[in-house]
Design brief:
The chain is built from 22 helices and 13 strands. The chain is of the alpha+beta class. Strands 3-4-5-2-1-8-9 form a seven-stranded mixed β-sheet. The structure holds adenosine-5'-triphosphate (ATP) and magnesium ion. Adenosine-5'-triphosphate (ATP) is lined by residues 34-35, 50, 122-123, 127, 166, 168-169, 213.
Length: 461
């Protein structure tokens, strides 16, 4: 990747070029910026387009008139006008320059003079590039393209100052490590270590959005280890670094923290499931007991679910997410009783207690088996297969029971006064058809239907 790639090398979306021409005609500068440029260079899917402009919001609004399918103004106080064009979301923000008040939760924003100033205030060099529009020339004053090629995450200015100005950038660093598989520069790691306590001033909602992106990314374990290794996690998720305890002091088995990273990665990128993976064992440190027979963690799933509820609530997760994550944590050991032989009733209870979380619970249970012992892993997998097959078989059987016609053959023969024969089967098939159409039918209704059906065929009622 070259330092100064030309626009020809970049596959700039036609929409962006079109909009650039409109802004140029109106006498304004327009650039594609930030994540959009980074993702273009990486060849990643660019679904949202971010722009920076010399135009003020009122001017931007005017340029968009008649071109955009829709315009949005929620961010207009901060200089951002949103738009929708042919299904693509666009955000167009007036050049910025930031002024920070020491204890402010949100940075104060003022309009900047030019694109260079705007890029200088961005969080990482890989996010501090612009593409001039409509021309397509790459503007990269901080060597972002080279850093991207080398997979390095670094700040445009001194990280300690950047992180002190807006401490959220420290969590963003971990988010980008998880999403893009970039490696933080040494000074970035040191900057986070030095500034981690500043995170206190950041609004929880902003943190949560970054944690969510980290968790559903391709390499969550890398992002999580950065949070833990720099001590940043101590500030907002102390339950995670607390998992560094040894599972088994005698054999010094892998620690619970490493196991947790593995479980998160083995779960598919679904927020509820990965949050459950992240927190499923946080009850272990509190419940750990070392006895001559070994180490135990009695009821850690109950204690863990309680701790998770507290943590997720303080991170302001919506109740529905908190409830689902806690249910998964509470149930994550249930399957382990299965080897002792479950009755059909026990299987039904498992299905009922998991409710709509059944598939996630099965996935978490499977992901939780990170043993290196291949025999053990195979045994667990086979049991889980068996349980899932029984769940399916039971459901099928119960569905069939539920859609049986409301009368049986004997009742049909008695009512119609006919001997065994094809007519009985036809009558039952008819009742089943009606049942399928209309849902369950009572016995009385079924008799009325049967009478009418029999009359049509000249059978006595
Ligand atoms: P995504 O693909 O998740 O949208 P992104 O890089 O576009 O990733 P956004 O949060 O949408 O991330 O931010 C857009 C751009 O704004 C970033 O690329 C970066 O240039 C800048 N930016 C965002 N947040 C900050 C921040 N806290 N400090 C400095 N610059 C920021
Ligand atoms: Mg973005």
């Amino acid at each position: 990747m070259a330092d100064h790639a030309s626009g020809a090398a970049l596959d700039v979306p036609d929409l962006a070029i079109e909009l650039g021409a409109l802004f140029a005609d109106a006498g304004h500068e327009l650039y594609l910026v930030g994540g959009s440029v980074r993702d273009l260079l990486l060849g990643r899917d660019v679904s949202d387009l971010d722009f920076a402009t010399s135009a003020h919001p009122a001017e931007t609004t005017k340029v968009l008139h008649g071109w955009a399918d829709r315009r949005y103004f929620v961010g207009v106080r901060f200089g951002t006008v949103g738009a929708l064009k042919e299904g693509t979301r666009l955000e167009i923000t007036t050049f910025r320059q930031e002024v920070y008040a020491e204890q402010d939760r949100k940075p104060a924003v003022t309009f900047g003079r030019d694109i260079e100033t705007d890029l200088g205030r961005r969080d990482f060099t890989i996010n501090a590039m612009a593409v001039w529009l409509p021309g397509g020339e790459l503007i990269d004053p901080h060597g972002g393209a080279k850093a991207l090629g080398a997979r390095v995450l670094d700040t445009p200015t001194d990280p300690a100052i950047a992180f002190s100005d807006d401490p959220l950038r420290m969590i963003r660093a971990a988010r980008f490590v998880a999403q893009l598989d970039v490696v933080p520069a040494e000074r970035v790691i040191e900057g986070i270590r030095a500034m981690r306590d500043r995170l206190d001033i950041v609004a929880v909602e902003r943190m949560q959005a970054e944690i969510d992106k980290l968790l559903v990314a391709e390499h969550p374990a890398k992002g999580l280890s950065l949070l833990v290794d720099t001590g940043l996690a101590d500030v907002f998720l102390p339950e995670l670094p607390a998992l560094r305890l040894e599972q088994d002091p005698v054999h010094q088995h892998k620690d619970v923290l490493r196991h947790t990273y593995a479980v998160v990665e083995r779960c598919e990128p679904d927020l509820v499931l990965r949050l459950a993976g992240l927190l499923h064992d946080i009850g272990k440190p509190k419940t750990r007991q070392v006895t001559p027979e070994g180490v135990s963690f009695h009821h850690h799933e109950i204690v863990g679910a309680r701790m998770a509820r507290e943590r997720l609530t303080s991170l302001r997760y919506p109740n529905a997410i908190v409830d689902d994550v806690c249910t998964l944590i509470e149930l994550h050991l249930r399957f382990h009783g299965y080897g002792e032989g479950w009755t059909d009733a026990a299987v039904r209870r498992y299905v009922r207690d998991a409710g709509p979380l059944l598939d996630r619970l099965n996935q978490l249970t499977r992901a939780d088996v990170t043993t290196r012992n291949a025999d053990r892993a195979r045994r667990f997998a086979a049991l889980q297969d068996e349980l899932e097959e029984r769940i399916a078989a039971l459901a099928e059987q119960e569905n069939l029971e539920a859609i049986r016609p409301s009368l049986d053959g004997r009742q049909v023969m008695e009512r119609l006064g006919v001997p065994p024969g094809p007519v009985v089967g036809e009558a039952l098939a008819y009742l089943l058809d009606v049942r399928m159409e209309r849902g369950p039918i009572s016995e009385d209704e079924a008799f009325v239907l049967l009478d009418a059906w029999g009359k049509e065929r000249g059978l006595a009622g």
